[in-house]
Protein 1
Amino acid sequence: MSKTLFNCPNCGAVYRVIQAEAGPESKDREITCRSCGGPLHGREGSFVLKYFLVERPRIQALGRRSG
Ligand SMILES: [Zn+2]
């Protein structure tokens, strides 16, 4: 079991990437960064990639709001 960490090139969010065998329902599916909405690779050869958000990017405080 291998862990692969991936950094979104756009916002720096950290994802854990898991390769899964492409099933019959695994069609080309666009995956986007949950943080910035940028495109992520959804497929690697015959595997599909699943992204699990590990760490949100450190965004410089653009008007902090608490609550
Ligand atoms: Zn991103």
Protein 2
Amino acid sequence: MTYPQTRLRRLRATPALRALARETSLTAADLVQPLFVCHGEKVRRPVASMPGQAQLSVDEAAREAEALAKAGVGGVILFGLPATKDPEGREAYDEKGIIPKALRALREAAPDLLLWADVCLCEYTDHGHCGILNGDQVDNDRTLPLLARASVAYAAAGADLIAPSDMMDGRVGAIRRALDEAGHAGTPIVAYSAKYASAFYGPFREAAESAPKFGNRRGYQMDPANSDEALREVALDLEEGADMVMVKPALPYLDVIRRVKDRFGVPVAAYSVSGEFAMIRAAAENGWLDGERAALETLTSIRRAGADVILTYFAKEIAPVLGRVEA
Ligand SMILES: [Zn+2]
């Protein structure tokens, strides 16, 4: 059947018909808000390159978590700013470090909110790389036990999900074994499986104070030109025990999200990173586009590509809009 019998405009005629025919849903529960947690009290230090986002002390982060839970946001993912940095990133796996402290406070403030703990060393090392160094190279195998220790410390402090973002080979297996041995067999791992060496992380590095002091991360993060390799990364992480896999960034890698979803049919998270947020926010502040609509369209596209969950800096402001949105 073709025109005039077929008229695709029939199902676009009214808001109710469009809602009926809509293929992709976006709800507050699909969104996870990243939070940057620092030491101190009543600290709310704005991140210049991410208007609306701030480094928060634990008390402020707890208030934020309460508000996010009320807004129906699906969860928060925590990034820590240590008191001091050193070559081994010690505070990352200190049971009394910033993340365990934040997890305990947030659990109390928002008992039902899912708490994700990002696991990496780059915020904690003085050189800013994601593992410990051997010369000027990141030492994969010596980094694994430290990531495992951090994961156990976070699970013990109440993390609902452990999310390793370091891109070391074998870390999911090492973390799974350590969690199981420590009595956390029920704690799921969300692996940052396909994490690309991306220019879009710039604002995050200001927020998390995690820019590498020399070189770059191309020796462990993925080459933006590759997507077969992303499938290999995902396959390995699933074999090692990942419960959910992640693609990061999201918008420049929608094809990778789709391939992962089609190939494996497992729960997929996508991290819409700081640069994706900053681009929309900056354009909106200049009056060049409608920021809210652009954010909604972007997040919908990431869901449409196959992501079940989206980590996004828009979670807090978009969540209240989702109930009343007419796309
Ligand atoms: Zn890192």
